[in-house]
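subagent[fold] <- orchestrator: predict structure for attached chain, return tokens only, no commentary.
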Amino acid sequence: MHQPLAHRGFIGYTGSINQRGETVDQEAKLAILAHIAQALNDAGVVWGLGASAMLYYEGVTDAFEDFDLLIAQGSLPTAQQALEELGAIPSPPAAPSSTYATAHFQEYTWQGVELDLLCGFAVRRKEGVFSFPFDATRIARHAEQRGVPIPLCSLADWFVLYLLMPGRAKKALLIAQHWRAQRTAEPRAWLNLWLRNRLPGDVRERVMALYAELGNLQ
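subagent[fold] -> orchestrator:
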């Protein structure tokens, strides 16, 4: 469901429960992701892995709970068909959220693992609605799982999204700490995409401060 995106993904939990009541460990979940990625890639879906699983691949965290799949606007029907042909079971529609204004959210379960399909992901704040315009240009790089390419969203996009989401600033801090440890200024180009557009004042202030700090690492 859409609401748990703001509350789940705490570091340390690595298991899901399958239909037989058995725990699905992290290695099994990665194998499951390879099958999901293969199905989406074969169908020509423009998608990216986000949230805690993306942080795992980037070395920011050592655990994740499930998979958040960002889908480009034109790929939504194809993505839904590919997952359902794979055998993923859609959950009942989520109740309206006061926090999110995502155009399309659908939760699936496959092999005991939750998959959250997000198309037109948006966060509602008192200043208005702030959308993440995910498309192929927002794929930072491809990881590989069992020989299958896994497109990853950028850390910078999720740094800003975590700042926009209530109660998720600690995740943004983990990303910033990762960049400092890597002594890289590369995220500045990604952060600039957000700074060109409207942001809440508190979020803009934090993004600009990190943008300036990363510039000093060059």
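orchestrator: received. Logging for downstream: The helical segments are 26-42, 51-57, 76-86, 155-164, 169-182, 187-195, 201-215. Residues 1-21 have pLDDT under 50 and may be disordered.
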